[in-house]
Predict the 3D structure of the following.
Amino acid sequence: MTIKLVVIGGGSSYTPEIIEGIILRHHSFPVTEIVLVDIEEGNQKLEIVGQLAKRMIEKSNKPIKLSWTLDRKEALKQADFVSTQIRVGGLTARSKDERIPLQHGYIGQETNGAGGIFKALRTIPVLLELARDVHEICPQAWVINFTNPAGIVTEALLKHSPHKKVIGVCNIPYNMRYSTAEILNTKPKNVMIEFIGLNHYVFGRKVFVNGVDYTSEVLTKVSQGLDYSPANIVNLGWSKTFIEATSLLPNPYHQYYFQTAAVLKKDKQALEENGTRAEVVRRLEKSLFELYKNPDLCDKPKELEERGGAFYSDVACSLMDSIYNNKADIQTVNTLNKGAIPELPEDSVIEVNSVITKNGPQPITVGALPNSVKGHIYQMKAFEELVIRASITGHYKDAYLAMVMNPLIGDEVGSKTLLDALLEAHKDYLPQF
Amino acid sequence: MTIKLVVIGGGSSYTPEIIEGIILRHHSFPVTEIVLVDIEEGNQKLEIVGQLAKRMIEKSNKPIKLSWTLDRKEALKQADFVSTQIRVGGLTARSKDERIPLQHGYIGQETNGAGGIFKALRTIPVLLELARDVHEICPQAWVINFTNPAGIVTEALLKHSPHKKVIGVCNIPYNMRYSTAEILNTKPKNVMIEFIGLNHYVFGRKVFVNGVDYTSEVLTKVSQGLDYSPANIVNLGWSKTFIEATSLLPNPYHQYYFQTAAVLKKDKQALEENGTRAEVVRRLEKSLFELYKNPDLCDKPKELEERGGAFYSDVACSLMDSIYNNKADIQTVNTLNKGAIPELPEDSVIEVNSVITKNGPQPITVGALPNSVKGHIYQMKAFEELVIRASITGHYKDAYLAMVMNPLIGDEVGSKTLLDALLEAHKDYLPQF
Amino acid sequence: MTIKLVVIGGGSSYTPEIIEGIILRHHSFPVTEIVLVDIEEGNQKLEIVGQLAKRMIEKSNKPIKLSWTLDRKEALKQADFVSTQIRVGGLTARSKDERIPLQHGYIGQETNGAGGIFKALRTIPVLLELARDVHEICPQAWVINFTNPAGIVTEALLKHSPHKKVIGVCNIPYNMRYSTAEILNTKPKNVMIEFIGLNHYVFGRKVFVNGVDYTSEVLTKVSQGLDYSPANIVNLGWSKTFIEATSLLPNPYHQYYFQTAAVLKKDKQALEENGTRAEVVRRLEKSLFELYKNPDLCDKPKELEERGGAFYSDVACSLMDSIYNNKADIQTVNTLNKGAIPELPEDSVIEVNSVITKNGPQPITVGALPNSVKGHIYQMKAFEELVIRASITGHYKDAYLAMVMNPLIGDEVGSKTLLDALLEAHKDYLPQF
Amino acid sequence: MTIKLVVIGGGSSYTPEIIEGIILRHHSFPVTEIVLVDIEEGNQKLEIVGQLAKRMIEKSNKPIKLSWTLDRKEALKQADFVSTQIRVGGLTARSKDERIPLQHGYIGQETNGAGGIFKALRTIPVLLELARDVHEICPQAWVINFTNPAGIVTEALLKHSPHKKVIGVCNIPYNMRYSTAEILNTKPKNVMIEFIGLNHYVFGRKVFVNGVDYTSEVLTKVSQGLDYSPANIVNLGWSKTFIEATSLLPNPYHQYYFQTAAVLKKDKQALEENGTRAEVVRRLEKSLFELYKNPDLCDKPKELEERGGAFYSDVACSLMDSIYNNKADIQTVNTLNKGAIPELPEDSVIEVNSVITKNGPQPITVGALPNSVKGHIYQMKAFEELVIRASITGHYKDAYLAMVMNPLIGDEVGSKTLLDALLEAHKDYLPQF
């Protein structure tokens, strides 16, 4: 019995996270082979990360075969799991996603805002090609998609590729469980949150500790300033009024929608002080790779945690473990709705608690959305559909619709100006336009 | 055979419009009695308008009995039609609806924005009381609701009063047909527009002249600057990009959502120059009532047209005519969805082409909403539901949700500040809070 | 300005009906050319009917060009309307549709029962081919489908052919209006029935005379034995209990579902006495064609009325007239649901009151189905989908599902026996199997 | 920490099953108190069963307090679980449910057919009263409803009582898993079946063994004659054609719908030979109670298994265990749909795999129903709604609709005759009529 994992974008600075995760779970999820795959431009990073991974595995003494390559098709042969953590255009593109909108007076969010739209437009065609390869070369493999905007990308793959074994993952739901556990003085594994909504637009409707309802305790603490943001998001806090009126646990990304002016101000200030997040990350990465090169380093360095992707490895490994072992436990993933949220199309991808078996995730019903947020959730899904459509057709008019129907942009004139600027800036990575 | 029409808010400056409409259609829709009803505060205006209406009818030689009164219950006896054109709190309240949001940096729109929310909160309880009276005193009567926000108010009445014979009307759809006819050099009666959406959020999906599709001609002209706004809205024009991408005919109120910054700027400037629209209207009304007092005036004065309600009378009289004569013609009204727009709840009120018979309106199916705007239309409906809920419960938290989920407000902190200011300003007319 | 009508199956004994209808409406719907089309096997009948039609037109003095041909593609050039009244396999096939089920103890109904399933299986591929020709040769033309099972066939065309201008018609709704008018002593044009459901499974929910509700009067009379069946159906009457409990006006075909045993007995008896309906019709047709041959006959002979298709001509001509003249009047047709009945798929074909314009029918909303019959209507639609699927795939298993899920068959073993017998009997006309 | 279980209908011959189940699971689900409740007429049985239960518990040495009483309200105090296993009218009523329909030529099925309708009409009012008591006296308690027709009764309670903690259970799904395990030579706990549909109308869509798909193996074996019926149903086998065409695993009750004639014949024959099932059960019960009286009997007697309720105890205890221990495992229960089957109303009760926690069941999404059976499942649900409505209103016309819209009855005249006979026979237990 073998388990082969292929990591697409294997030269990423995140890779040591996932290597560590695989090593730590080896008793229950005994991966036998890992292949790190990257593209020509990432060759150097791939070499550095590959060597570090090799040292980590050697130190662990686990019987895991490791290799790294630029030949994706070769790597995919016999794969059981394919994880994706790519960044089309690299941090340079991300920097543009963040900087150009800010220059036009809009939030340059790399997931749901204008930046996120362009990240999707660049990424979807590349991952569709991957999905087609997977379907041909290793149709039995599960694709675990980390790549943002994870919900949009996963829906695009499920709707437009022949490969249907695709699951989107994000660390936000786990982050929320973790932070909630912290303020309730318990362990994350005891905490169950009823999540409703979409990736980066998910709310917690109920919080249970060992089955007992602690929702109101948690909401009270959140309205008193609990910070449960990941490292890459500065929390602005939530007003008591908002929390009491919605009776929902927001996720860190909700600040973009309900604290727009404050976030815009904060982002502009940050830009002046440190450059955009992409630029901060570039510096972080640079020093991380310096660390990685050290031939004495045989562990994931502590500094990686500042990078912002905490728990990504946990989320991914735990998902693969449950699939492999047919655990039928409950995890929060991005998968087809199938009626779980009756207001959304059955073939939408939602972020939802799901039972995970060897056959993948099956969502647990959410039931009717709360009146307070059903309008926004539906609108975000409709916006996501417009993004996917634009990424496939490459029509200017479809991309414009995605911009003008995004709640962070919306202005019929401003949308065009910003769209034109971003299309120009990213043209090398948008062959479909 | 008698036809009795009761005009609630009969002291309004609009009344001569409706009187003229009744006189002009008397051959097909022979109203036998009109009663103008108003409240104590409107007594003086009622007297002036009543006298003018009396002179108009006398001049027309039509056998219409006219009276005016403050006794609503008495007036409702044997009524066949009850039209509502009230303004709870008068122009003073409207002025606050417009001025206070502007002071906080938000559009003070009296229908869908913060102003509109408060107009709904003040109006719904008063009209629910009227609807209950109608149901008891003249259950056979049709209530023709002109009162803004007309869609929200009509849904509130249909959901929360026992009286189900309520139809909401607005002059915007007719205005759009009229303007379209103008640019196509034809008569409005030859023009049919497929309307989709909600009151003040309705789009035209197709334009037909005598059954022939002229949609693209109209869209082209609109993107070249066609102005089809009613007198009370300054059109900012629509970009070619927006029109081409949506392939939809926007209504004049869409500028609030897609040209927010420009409108805000324009409104602030207008405020400085002329005060808010309420204040302009107050001056207009003052001079109108001076005209009305003239005992030699026996016609609707031309100056009334500047008031902005063009076609209201046409819309209302034409609707009552079709009901009375079981015409089975098609008119655009606000009525229960019943599946016409499958994405919206069946008991939502939508603005929709409907077949009008003695049994009221039956909507013609719209079918699936265009992907481009389905998110926004759904969100607006969800927002409207929040407003209705707040108007019924009087809970602070429900009013807050209506504010924070409105696309023109949205900020979790700003919503509260603005809400508090408006609740304080309007407290005399919000007994439920 | 020309109007060209192509009649597919022009050699049918019904053709004089439609010729008469065209002549009578020539003032408002001035057809300029009629082409009767048939297949080789119908050549002789076509010649007879063509000659009669020619004499009728000559007598009428209307400027209508008439021809008949076996060359369908040639005939379709420049067509504006294409009507279909074909019978694949002729009366011989119909006789099998009726006789074989009866031999196995099932109703041999030629529309919804086992017979109807096989009529659909034989007909759909042939009409799909026609629809593809129409789409290529005269894409502007409206196809008016008379061919039974009209609802199923129309849905098959709308789902599986590129041509979307297809309308299904049936004389049952008009028949119901006509009979209702008779018992209420008024004219059919004054009667409006709210129809709900599917072709041959449609109910009347409300009956209005000039907009006044006469539903309970009509229901009372129906439960007292009113017969409003067309000539080809012997009415068994409806019990007071059934009518009161459902509060709905059944159509003549409902006896197959709610009076199954009695109908089966009646059909078996009729079979012994006169043979199946097909055989009765064959004799009728024989004598009709004898009449048609008479060179002095220049009118539709009275004897045609016994044939059972009363009003078909009226229904079709009235539909084409409203399309041509953009009348926006209301007619009952088989067209896409689009939410009119929210419980059924949006792309289902339903039988529904629709506004008829130059752009075809747009259904008026029906709203939620009555609880009493929603289960049956939904099930019939699901059954119809199975029939369509089988007609396209030609899979044995799909045909079996259509049989076993039909409420008149249903038995898992009996369905197979009957299916095998019918497949064998009709194999010449089922190339897809 | 205490756990109190109240058994309504505690004098039933089934009670030793549940007592044994509680004893066997005491290590993980430590019940501290059991109260058996019955009505005056059941007093004698209650005493016998109570004494046996007492001996069983004593022998087990578990610290469980046991009592029995006719005072339901007293018994409910502090209850944590309330199980219901009542039979309004006793076996005499059941005998009529079975015998009278057979006399009229209909299947006398005690769950979905005419018998089932009357069982529902008698039972729902009694259990609604219980649910109201529970809600007042022990609102924290979960009601575990065993009483047939379990799906209909559970929906009635969830829709019409204030108590929302109600779960319906049936042994059929477990039976199917058990039988499937047997033919696959594995243990039931390794088998997972994707169930779709309604109580006694549930299908298995997929069968997994430890996550591996064995559906086609199972279907093949079923079509070769696998018998997986409970003791109270004689399996007639399923044809290969039916199994292949539907690709679904039927449940034993499906024979009533798809093998109607054969079942009717079998039932009539059984009636002549042994009387109805009720009469067989009465004899069984008589001998069981003779056994129960034996003061030396301290265990559930083996003979109870012939009674037909195998696994009931397992199903119920396992459900309570998972609730108590917040297990988040998956069990098949009757609970609110919430979108799990998108074609059915969100507030329908369906039989569905659900995650069981301290907060009750949350269904796992089923997704779109198979085209082959969606019509029948929808129709059965619509029929169930009619039964519930009739049980609440007590209107003759509603009961008639339930009869005439049931697929096993359906005839408009026969429905009335049978209805009248059953109403007369059961009048003492139908106070609402």
Summary: The radius of gyration of chain C is 21 Å. The first helix of chain C runs from residue 15 to 24. The interface with chain D takes residues 238-239, 241-242, 244-246, 257-262, 371-376, 378-383, 385-386, 389, 397-398, 400-401, 404-405, 407, 410-414, 416 of chain C (CB under 8 Å).
